Structure formats: C-alpha cells, structure tokens
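The passage that follows is intended for readers who have already worked through the single-chain material. We present the inputs for a multi-component assembly, then the predicted structure in tokenized form, and finally a short commentary. You are encouraged to pause after the input and sketch how you expect the pieces to fit together before reading on.
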Amino acid sequence: MSVTAVDERRLAVLSDTKLYPEASAFLSRFLADYALPSTQQLIGLLTFSRSWAELLTFVKHQESRDWGNKAEYQQFYTQLRRYLDDSKTGLRPRVKAELGLLPGGLTAKQEREAHDLWAGALAREFVQHLVAAALYQAQERRS
Amino acid sequence: MNVSLQIARAVAKELDQDPVYDRAKALGSQSVGLRRAQISGLESVANGTRKVSDVLDYIKLRTARHKEWRVNEIGAALLEAMEQDLRTRRDGICNELTSLADGAAVDDYMRQDIYLRLIRGFVAQLAAQYEFASMQHGRSGADERDSR
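Having made your guess, compare it with the prediction:
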C-alpha cells in the first residue's frame, strides 16, 4: 500500500493557523533587512511549488546562483531553504516531530512517501501565502 | 441544542450587529469601482474554500494586480475588516461557545468554520450593498457587460 494523499481538512487548518502567520512573519523579517525579490522570481517560486522535490531543487539552485549585485535574492532563497529544510527547525522535520502528521504502523518506504507528501503540501500552502503577501507588499510600497 | 446549531445562531447574531452591517454598507459603496465579476469572484472564493487564508490571499493578489482593487483602498479595507474585526468577532463567539458548553474546548476546526461563516456572511452583505450602490451610481451597464 502506498500513501497517496494528505488529510485536506487537517491541511486547511494548518494552512490558516500556522503557515499563513509564518509566511507573514517570514516576509516581515526579510523586509526588515532586504528588498523584495522581483515579481518574476515570486511567480517562479509559485510555479515550482507543485511538489516538494521540485521546490527544493529550485530553491537550492536559486540559492547557489551568482546574483552579482542582487545579494538580497541569495538571502531570500537561503532563508527560504532554511525555513523549508533545516535539519532541526525546517518544515520537513516538523511534519513528524512537531505536527505529528505521520500515522503509525507505516513501513520505512510508506513513511518516506507520506513525509514527502505532507512536506510538499505544507510547502505549497506556505509559498502561496508568501507570494500573495509579497506581491501585495510590493504594490503597497510602490503606491 | 447541538453545537452546529449553536454556531449557526451565534454567527447569525454576530452578522446582525449594527457595526457589521454599517461596515459592509460602507465597503459595498466603496467597491463601486469594481466590476460585478470581481465581486462575484470574491463571493465564489469565500463560498468555495475551506481556508480563510484563501480569501485573504485572493484579496492580496487582486489588489496587487488590478488597480480597481486599489481605488478607495478597497483591498486594504477588506483585509483589515477580515483580519481584525471578523477575527475578533470569531474569538468572541468561541469564548461564548466555550462557556455554553461547560468549558469544553472549541477546537481549531470549529474556529476555522466560524471564521469562514463570518467571512461568507460579511461578503454576502457587502455584495448586496455593492449592487445597491452600483444602481445608485447608474452602473447597470457594467453589470450587463459582465453577465455576458
């Protein structure tokens, strides 16, 4: 048996109670020191948030690029990678340790699949909130 | 009385408060720069989602992308009403339900459900006020265009 879906109801509550405020806080912390990345960068991030693997590959790739005089872009992706995948505080380890989203009785393979599914679903919600907040902030700052 | 009925009654009572009606009326009038399809879009998102954050994200994205949502600062005013006033009212209802249920916990699912019901009710009031304000402004032509 493979794990193919997350509990959408639980995901919806976590999206509202944890990921939305965390996306706002992430953005506020970032904007205290740096300028916002461009709209194209944010839309790109949204596009790659369809799966955990795609998102993490994209974020790591963007982090390792030579951004020249746009140091804030590198910072943005570094901070985002830490939020998602830090070995202690990242979203992925939180799936099991803090949020208790993995059911018991799974084989190692099933647990890995479930872990990836939940991490991907949570990350997609976080990125959606982050991008909406960032585009809104960018417009507020222009006007 | 079961919990569902208690929630429905508490939300209806809250939406019936004068300050809520007055705010919906003000925002409905403030929204006349929007097209009917834009108001319908907001109603569709509010009625079709199970996440409050979907409604808030929708308003943020529309405000960022379309200048009509920035006229009279309607986008910002809507966000403020939902994130401040309706959230406070949600908390009030939850406290009231806790005391009614002898201290039984109001869980995250119920809190989310109450918040969404308040938002849906508020958006419905706003949409009605928008229709009335649009009629007063003689904008029925815009309605016809949008219904095609």
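Commentary: The radius of gyration of chain B is 16 Å. DSSP finds seven helices and no strands in chain B. How closely did your sketch match?
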